Amino acid sequence: MRVSRSFKKILSISMALLLSTSVVAATGPSIEAKSNNSSSSNVSSSVSNDEYSLKQAIKYNNVYQLHKNWQIQSSAIDKGNGADISKPGYRADGWFNTTVPNTVMGALIEAGDIEDPFIHDRISRTDESRYNAPWWYRTEFTLPATEQGKKILVNFQGIGYQGDIWVNGTKIADKSEVIGSFRTYELDISDYVTADGKTKNTIAVEVTKSNFGKDFSVYWVDWVPRPTDNNMGLWRDVFITTSDVVTTRNPFVVSKVEPNLTTASLNAYVDVTNYSDSPVSGTVEATIKDPKGAVVTTLSQPVTLSAGAKDQEIAFTADKFNGLKINNPQLWWPIGMGEPSLHTIEFKFTAIDQKIKDSITQRFGIREVTTEMNVSPSTKTNPPLKDMVQFYVNHKPVLIKAGGYSPTDLYLRRDMDTNIAVVEYLKDMGLNAIRDEGIFFDDRLIDLLDENGLMYMGGWTCCSRWQEPAQYNDRELEIVNESLTSQLRELRVHPSMIAWLNGSDNPVSYSNSARGREVEQAFFDIENDLHWDEYGAIISSGSAKIATLTGTTSGMHMDASYDYAPPAMWFEDMDQGGAFGFTSEAGPGPSIPVIETMKKILPEHALWPYNVGGDNYQQWNFHNARGSFRDLSKFNLAMDNHYGESNSLEEYNIKAQVQQYDSQRAVFEALNANKYTKSTGWVQWMLNNAWPGMFWNLFDFYLNPNGSYFGAKKGNEPLHIMYDYASKEVKILNSTNQDYSGLKAKVQVYNIDSKKVYDKEFNNLALTPDGASPAVGGQPKQVGYQTINFDGKIDKADGITVVDKIAESNLQVSPTYFIRLELRDSKDNLVSINSYAQSTKKDLVRYQNHGWNYTPQDQFADLTQLQKLGQVDLQIEGKPKTVNNGQEQTITYTVKNKGNSIAYAVFAKIKKGANGDLVAPVKMEDNYFMLLPGEKRTLSATYNLSDLGNVTPVVEVNSYNNLTSKNKPMPTTTNLAFGKTATASTTQGSNTANRALESSMYTKWQSSTSSTGADPQWFQVDFGKPTKFDRTIIRWDYANYARDMVLEGSDDGVNWVPIYDGKNLNGSSVSDLQFDSVTKRYIKLTMSGKRPAGPQIGPGGTGNGVIGLGATAASTSFNIASFEVYDEPVSLYTIQEKLEKYIAKNDVRSPLTNQLGNSLEQAIHHEEKGHRDQAIKSLNDFLKHMNNEAHRDKLSVQAKEKLTADIEDLLKEWK
Question: Which segment of the chain is annotated as a signal peptide (predicted)?
Fold first, then answer.
């Protein structure tokens, strides 16, 4: 870096995040060093934020943590100069107390100066101008007299974005050089501080915020609203280290493991700096200890450091030191593959005269990460998707099942309890990795990954200055290179760190410019200099685009979906959008939180309905993502068509949970079922949110798991039974390193009436451990400094057994039916239970129109028959039992279905008392499961006692049955309008009227968007001859529905009679219009009431980096994707529905209501039992009651005529 001569004297840039395990009590102005024997973090225990500690991977000899006793204030408020503000005793009147790490807004929120910005649209109303001026951070402290005469260094691990740094009245670093959020700084302050145990010292930093998206800073893309302060502040750790004039820094160990795992060869490195003006000679000693602390080997070598030597690398390599060849090593393994064993290495420098000493200790894992580029099943060439990267750890293939990690707080406030919850959730869902796109939030989280065998992939973010290397000027290139060096030095100490992505959406040299290739080569050089190419994978980007410098792809792609996709797509599409290859980011899009969270984050007035424009629409959208994902249109379009219209928030929420459960389960089932041969990895977009969002998460901001969570958990069961949507096979999968025999599987199919129509059992099944045959073929290519084999192929994956194949066409299934799968071990213990609601009308995905963010559908699966499920009495049997285990409590409860119907999507909630909030985080054994009539399941949930509080936990249960409207299912008869002739009042472009009759949700009729399209508009169908019909279904193109609808029929197309008059008050994408049967040649729909506009929120904006939300324009047309007309056959159920309608309209009155209702119930009962003669007798009783003169005034003429006609038609059909 280029600095002034005076600045060089005091600035020493470490380029590594130099953190320590030492926990320093900083409860007062005095700070004291603590010994470095603190124990490792235990993910099962809760670490209080009052016990804030630095990272565990590195231990210094002496460290003083500067966490507490900071104050902040805007330079626009306190106009003092740095010389004064950085002096002890400065009167910081009106300043805000805080801790570090913290951003300015994070500190102001904690100080109560800013009201909770996470609910409603409050963040949009924060005053951005408040952060245009720099802000001051200052702290006072004392150093003990024992540090007098030593080198005293202050470490800044992250400054957002620039900083002037002052110590005791002297500026020691200028913001022109302290620039870049991801650079680290180690500054020599020995000459500026006093160490006598009494004198106060002051550090003050004046921070300036970044130009969001234009600087090399934290960037949030489209996941969340932009934090108003652009995350300015001291957002990572600040601490002081002391030593003699020689320091040891940047320890690092690389492992090479023999294929038979009997031997590992280690290379160990450490950087040594001499701060004196004279050469220093001495010895560097390296001592390795095993996970129990026993010494494995001690090595040493003499060194001579020239005066002022900076970061001189000392290498201990296995080819020169036999002690680095470890026999029978305890290896670090990813979760599920073995123990994540952690060793330590201590480097100690001792001068010849014994007067100068320093040491540093690193925790490391003995593991080797390698990759190869195998051939995927895709034939797509733009971008080329044929390569899929296969990861190996210690020569064993590993299927990457990752979540796209986001910092858990938009303002970068750290919380160790939340870190622990994230890790526990990862394990509970069966995930084994996270991908961090360019924020590197909390090192202590990565410590937990190390300890739990969870893998980590990091790299720069997309869609900002980081993604524009071809345009970097020389100064920007320096900042980027130094940022890369800092981050790689930090991350390489973590065995969990398996891959670094030099780019996210583009390779660095994607543009094929000279500058882009220069930047990518510079990255390779840095990575080689830091031995990264010996340590982990270097991935050009998360996309399949070609890096022009090397002519290769990354072996990853992001071409699946970011918005909703049905379960079948993840199995069926092995070419463009399914769960094939290595998907670096994708998922089914929206992930609606539990209803308790929705009620917390949305204003009460805007809770329901959503798709009606106005403030309701915008408040919901404000908690979605941004850009192309600013609304729930694709998710809700599918949901309305899958399950029917929702009439309340409660109904909407349960349907959302079920839909996202099914799609999310399918993602991981497809991945696991195709492991190694077709799929090598998946990064779920995303794992979590930094604020309360309704897009891209598996659990919400408040740590409540939802349907997405439980779908992922089910799909990733270690031993799992599943249904393959593509092959229709039932498979059992083994994701563990154990083999199994004597397994028993049961495959059952139930109709909507709970009757079993298929039942098979399979015994003595066996499963091999997870694994794969070696890849064959291919050729090596040089990529940077690494040699990687391309175009190989794995022919066989282990741990997969096909059990059965369900042939729907051979079964007498109802339009909606259930597949129920069970897997038991050799001792008859239930190890996996899995249920699917299926439809005879399938999701048909339009793969030829696959897009980067979404793939449209021609047809949606029809699951509306779920509305026929009866209400169920779900009971908790007995009293739930609780058992305490340290700081955790586990509650065990038994749920029983006492109803006569299948209970679908049964879910439990653990509450803090009867009317309390949800307990979170919570690990629940299962949720959104199916119970047969009379069936019960005993389940458990585990949570922290501290999260429960001093109350008794309460278990609440409910199901889909009890929360959904009992509307009429979609018809299964022929659509009478298909292929007929349609006309309309107006059309827009090629979206002519006949396009609504093609039975495809992709095509549509659209009314004119100009003045001719003003309300009302009409759409009509000519059947060509008189046609009997009694139901019309309109499938709208979501936003462009009609609020008011009138149906009319005509014999000649001129004279019209009314059929139906109704409203769509919930903005549903499906309008189901039911009426008494008529016979007409023509049907006409007259529409009015387009969706209103939605107001702008805050300063507006629609893309990345906005804190508000732009106004949504009013709909300018009506769009009908499918106009369907039906004549439904008469049945006992349709007669019952018609009777209920007449009763509701008071066309049938008491006491006749009871007599007719009872006769009809008896008829249904007899028919279901197969007693047709008795059913006919009950129907004749029904007719007698209607024709009884005593009831003449209890029945309208229309009701009598229609009900009589229907019964006579049914009796005629039965004969």
Answer: 1-25
**Does domain 246-364 match CATH 3.30.1490.100?**
no
Q: How many other CB atoms are there within 10 angstroms of residue 1028's CB atom?
A: 11
pLDDT for 51 = 58
Q: Which amino acid, 240?
A: I
Q: From CA 823, how far away is CA 914, in angstroms rounded?
A: 35
The whole-number pLDDT of residue 1010 equals 96
Q: Where are the domains of the chain?
A: 5-242, 246-364, 874-963, 981-1126, 1132-1214
Tokens 């996210």, residue? 504
pLDDT higher than threshold 80 for residue 875: yes
Q: What is the mean pLDDT of residues 1074-1086?
A: 97
Q: Are strands 881-885 and 903-912 parallel, antiparallel or unpaired?
A: unpaired
Q: Which two tokens stand for residue 274?
A: 């001499």
What confidence category does residue 32 fall into, taking pLDDT thresholds of 50, 70 and 90?
Answer: very low
Q: Which residue has the tokens 């229309």?
A: 1198
pLDDT of residue 28: 31
pLDDT tens across 363-381, in order? 999 999 999 999 999 999 9
* CATH of segment(s) 981-1126: 2.60.120.260
**3-class state of residue 916 by DSSP:** coil
pLDDT at position 85 is 99
Q: Cα separation of 824 and 769, whole Å? A: 17
Average pLDDT over residues 155-170: 98
Angle at 603 between CA 598 and CA 606, to 5 degrees: 85
* pLDDT given at position 48: 39
Per-residue pLDDT tens over the stretch 578-636: 999 999 999 999 999 999 999 999 999 999 999 999 999 999 999 999 999 999 999 99
Q: Are residues 366 and 359 in contact, defined by beta-carbon separation less than 8 angstroms? A: no
Strand partners, 771: 798
Are domains 5-242 and 981-1126 of this chain identical in fold?
Answer: yes
Bridge-partner residues for 140, per DSSP? 202
Residue with tokens 């600045």: 7
- Spatial separation of the C-alpha atoms in residues 47 and 1172, rounded to whole Å: 69
Has this prediction a pTM greater than 0.90?
A: yes
Cα–Cα–Cα angle for 889, 895, 900, rounded to 5 degrees:
170
User: Which residue type does 1028 have?
Assistant: K
Q: What DSSP assignment string belongs to 785-806?
A: TEEEEEEEB---EESEEEEEE-
The pair of structure tokens assigned to 324 is 């680095």
**In this structure, which long-range contacts are made by residues 634-638, counting pairs with CB atoms below 8 Å and at least 24 apart in sequence?**
634/563, 634/564, 634/589, 634/854, 634/1038, 635/563, 635/564, 635/589, 635/590, 635/592, 635/659, 636/610, 636/611, 636/1038, 636/1069, 637/1001, 637/1037, 637/1038, 637/1069, 638/564, 638/566, 638/857, 638/860
Superfamily of domain 5-242: Galactose-binding domain-like (2.60.120.260)
Q: Report strand pairing: 844-845 vs 857-859.
A: antiparallel
Burial class for 515, CB neighbours closer than 10 Å (0-12, 13-18, 19+): middle
Interhelix angle 1132-1144/1152-1168, rounded to 10 degrees, is 160
CA separation, residue 697 to residues 408, 669, 689, 855 (Å): 11, 18, 6, 20
CA proximity to 837, closest of 1044, 995, 658, 986 = 658
Distance in angstroms (rounded) separating the CA atoms of residues 525 and 532: 10
Cα(1023)–Cα(1080) distance, integer angstroms: 8
Rounded to a whole number, what is the distance in angstroms from the first to the last CA of the chain? 95
pLDDT band at 1198 (very low <50, low <70, confident <90, very high): confident
Tell me which residue has tokens 């007669």: 1135
Length of the chain: 1215
Is the model's pLDDT at 45 over the cut of 50? no
Q: Apex CA 88: angle with CA 83 and CA 91, to 5°?
A: 85
CA distance 1170 to 1167: 5
906 bridge partner residues: 929
- Which residue's structure tokens are 């009042």? 985
Backbone φ and ψ of 485, nearest 5°: -60, -45
